[in-house]
Amino acid sequence: MASVLSYESLVHAVAGAVGSVTAMTVFFPLDTARLRLQVDEKRKSKTTHMVLLEIIKEEGLLAPYRGWFPVISSLCCSNFVYFYTFNSLKALWVKGQHSTTGKDLVVGFVAGVVNVLLTTPLWVVNTRLKLQGAKFRNEDIVPTNYKGIIDAFHQIIRDEGISALWNGTFPSLLLVFNPAIQFMFYEGLKRQLLKKRMKLSSLDVFIIGAVAKAIATTVTYPLQTVQSILRFGRHRLNPENRTLGSLRNILYLLHQRVRRFGIMGLYKGLEAKLLQTVLTAALMFLVYEKLTAATFTVMGLKRAHKH
């Protein structure tokens, strides 16, 4: 029990949250472009920079940063939960022995499930606030009018019922494999490099973080597109399938997209997503590693478990 409430888990959680917030803020416009490409199928521009230029031209200079605050607050909670759970479980299970890739994957998966169940409502509100006021090419999209995070929660519960806050939970649970795959590759690559040298440089950490995230993102991207559409919840879906997030709906949305755009339709916005997530993950891991190392040094603590 002590390891779950330990100071070390708290340091990891805070460092993880700070790292992700820093990285997300730097690359936020890329995420805006990715979300538009996923949700607004009628958008002609395929490349990230063209979409960003269009958004700025039509909606103003700050439009790529629309919804920044809810995204950052959700990210903060989400990463805090993820890193805290990941490191607590690892401490409980590994107990001073060397960790293995398999254990990293299982721990990453469990931490991800806990994270999804606790934070999905934040991400649903997020997606909507981020797309509010956007100029869509698709006429089927019903616009929203929320004053902020609390008002969005209130309106969604009032108009769509409390379960709407968990829209897209099913693909999100499948997407738990994304951070689990990412952490598995990250920890694995780190172990390989540490065999060859004593210490990893900032560039090493940055590159390992980038490679791990690129693999995880490409593997799970079609599900991310479905997740965005479900969270947004403003598409008029086939009426008999109102239970958003059922497996049938996921398959229906994937099938629709392949029928209309071919197999590459599943990867619409991948370029923006890869640019954003790879750079964000690399920067996040860098800040996270530096912060945890600095904190433990300042507190005079040796890291209890060597990776």
UniProtKB/TrEMBL annotation:
<feature type="transmembrane region" description="Helical">
    <location>
        <begin position="200"/>
        <end position="223"/>
    </location>
</feature>
<comment type="function">
    <text>Peroxisomal transporter for multiple cofactors like coenzyme A (CoA), flavin adenine dinucleotide (FAD), flavin mononucleotide (FMN) and nucleotide adenosine monophosphate (AMP), and to a lesser extent for nicotinamide adenine dinucleotide (NAD(+)), adenosine diphosphate (ADP) and adenosine 3',5'-diphosphate (PAP). May catalyze the transport of free CoA, FAD and NAD(+) from the cytosol into the peroxisomal matrix by a counter-exchange mechanism.</text>
</comment>
<dbReference type="InterPro" id="IPR018108">
    <property type="entry name" value="MCP_transmembrane"/>
</dbReference>
<feature type="repeat" description="Solcar">
    <location>
        <begin position="99"/>
        <end position="192"/>
    </location>
</feature>
<feature type="repeat" description="Solcar">
    <location>
        <begin position="7"/>
        <end position="92"/>
    </location>
</feature>
<dbReference type="GO" id="GO:0051087">
    <property type="term" value="F:protein-folding chaperone binding"/>
</dbReference>
<dbReference type="InterPro" id="IPR002067">
    <property type="entry name" value="MCP"/>
</dbReference>
<dbReference type="GO" id="GO:0015297">
    <property type="term" value="F:antiporter activity"/>
</dbReference>
<dbReference type="InterPro" id="IPR023395">
    <property type="entry name" value="MCP_dom_sf"/>
</dbReference>
<feature type="transmembrane region" description="Helical">
    <location>
        <begin position="67"/>
        <end position="85"/>
    </location>
</feature>
<dbReference type="GO" id="GO:0080122">
    <property type="term" value="F:AMP transmembrane transporter activity"/>
</dbReference>
<keyword id="KW-0472">Membrane</keyword>
<protein>
    <recommendedName>
        <fullName>Peroxisomal membrane protein PMP34</fullName>
    </recommendedName>
</protein>
<keyword id="KW-0813">Transport</keyword>
<keyword id="KW-1133">Transmembrane helix</keyword>
<dbReference type="GO" id="GO:0005778">
    <property type="term" value="C:peroxisomal membrane"/>
</dbReference>
<dbReference type="Pfam" id="PF00153">
    <property type="entry name" value="Mito_carr"/>
</dbReference>
<comment type="similarity">
    <text>Belongs to the mitochondrial carrier (TC 2.A.29) family.</text>
</comment>
<dbReference type="GO" id="GO:0015228">
    <property type="term" value="F:coenzyme A transmembrane transporter activity"/>
</dbReference>
<feature type="transmembrane region" description="Helical">
    <location>
        <begin position="12"/>
        <end position="30"/>
    </location>
</feature>
<feature type="repeat" description="Solcar">
    <location>
        <begin position="200"/>
        <end position="294"/>
    </location>
</feature>
<dbReference type="GO" id="GO:0015217">
    <property type="term" value="F:ADP transmembrane transporter activity"/>
</dbReference>
<dbReference type="GO" id="GO:0051724">
    <property type="term" value="F:NAD transmembrane transporter activity"/>
</dbReference>
<dbReference type="InterPro" id="IPR052217">
    <property type="entry name" value="Mito/Peroxisomal_Carrier"/>
</dbReference>
<keyword id="KW-0050">Antiport</keyword>
<dbReference type="GO" id="GO:0006635">
    <property type="term" value="P:fatty acid beta-oxidation"/>
</dbReference>
<dbReference type="GO" id="GO:0044610">
    <property type="term" value="F:FMN transmembrane transporter activity"/>
</dbReference>
<keyword id="KW-0812">Transmembrane</keyword>
<keyword id="KW-0576">Peroxisome</keyword>
<feature type="transmembrane region" description="Helical">
    <location>
        <begin position="105"/>
        <end position="125"/>
    </location>
</feature>
<keyword id="KW-0677">Repeat</keyword>
<keyword id="KW-0963">Cytoplasm</keyword>
<dbReference type="GO" id="GO:0005347">
    <property type="term" value="F:ATP transmembrane transporter activity"/>
</dbReference>
<comment type="subunit">
    <text>Interacts (via N- and C-terminus peroxisomal targeting regions) with PEX19; the interaction occurs with the newly synthesized SLC25A17 in the cytosol.</text>
</comment>
<dbReference type="GO" id="GO:0015908">
    <property type="term" value="P:fatty acid transport"/>
</dbReference>
<dbReference type="GO" id="GO:0015230">
    <property type="term" value="F:FAD transmembrane transporter activity"/>
</dbReference>
